[in-house]
Amino acid sequence: MNLTINGNNENIEKDKLTVSELLKLKDVEMPEMVSVELNGEILDRDKYDTTELKDSDVIEFLYFMGGGGN
């Protein structure tokens, strides 16, 4: 299946893949700290295990960082 992940076109050699499986496949560090945008919509974390990706989906891994201040 062809996916766009963080702006890069990638061919994943699987017919079925959930968001959780993609996070593991891409070796995302601290997946509990990553939000996932799927086709322009932020996906609820409790749906990562059940949301299956489809050919041509667009996925963004969003990392929120604290900090700032003086």
TrEMBL record:
InterPro entries: Beta-grasp_dom_sf (IPR012675), Mopterin_synth/thiamin_S_b (IPR016155), Thi_S (IPR010035), ThiS/MoaD-like (IPR003749). SUPFAM superfamilies: MoaD/ThiS. Coiled coil: none annotated. Pfam families: ThiS. NCBIfam families: thiS. This is Thiamine biosynthesis protein ThiS. It comes from Melioribacter roseus (strain DSM 23840 / JCM 17771 / VKM B-2668 / P3M-2). The lineage of its organism: Bacteria, Pseudomonadati, Ignavibacteriota, Ignavibacteria, Ignavibacteriales.
